[in-house]
Amino acid sequence: MAADTDSNIRAKVWLEPDQVEALRNACYDAEFASYLQQRNDAIIALLYDAGLRVGELVQVDVEMLRAGRSELYLPAHIQKDYPNDSSPSAVTMGLASDTSRTLNSYLASRWKDTEALFPSRKADRITEQGVRYMLHEVAEAADVQPWKVDGSRGDAGDVTPHALRHSVAYRMLHEEEGNTLYDVRNRLRHRSLQTTERVYDHFKKV
Question: Distance between alpha carbon 65 and the CA centroid of its chain, in Å?
Fold first, then answer.
């Protein structure tokens, strides 16, 4: 599978919005346990909205959702990088209304009451590998073939949490009006704009 780390080279794998929607729809296929379906949908929705790294996602607690679950508070200690170059800082991120609704629906009926936002079958907190495995299974069910930097199409094994993070940048630059690489930098919380430029310069519209 593709690596789940930020890199100084261009983003190699990403999904377009309709492919992410296909992933979310596939969460409700009968092959997946019914009590995990909403959780998996909520994981994908939050990754694709907030652009979290998988290591951040698994550390999110329920209490970090604020303002009717329309905001996500990320304390400094769970973040890999920070939105400024001088010192670590907590960040509050606004969430899309669809993400907020998805999270509220999930939390209203989840099968396990845990401090962690996303538990697993056997533990009170899902692991990074658990998230990767879930995405692989859902991508197989959805038959999603992500885009690759050379213009070819990937397969289900290429659909990782970091591919969804790249997909946030693609959406912001191609599907939403007015965004710049600076806006992508702020959403993805890169340490510097130069990192954003190295990874996503090829996403800019020609």
Answer: 15
User: What is the DSSP code string of 13-67?
Assistant: EE--HHHHHHHHHHTTSTTS-HHHHHHHHHHHHHHHHH---HHHHTT-BGGGEET
Q: Are 172 and 187 in contact (CB under 8 A)?
A: yes
CA–CA separation, 117 and 64 (whole Å):
9
User: Which residues 6+ apart lie within 8 Å of 51 measured at CB?
Assistant: 165, 168, 169, 187, 188, 189
Enumerate the β-bridge partners of residue 74: 91
| Rounded to 5°, angle at Cα 25 from 74 and 66 | 25
Contact 39, 118 (CB under 8 A): yes
- Each residue's pLDDT tens digit, 52-73: 999 999 999 999 999 999 999 9
Q: What is the pTM of this model?
A: 0.91
CATH 3.40.50.11810 is the classification of domain 13-203: no
Going by the DSSP 8-state scheme, the letter that residue 102 receives in this structure is H
Which tens digits make up the pLDDT trace of 153-187? 999 999 999 999 999 999 999 989 899 999 999 99
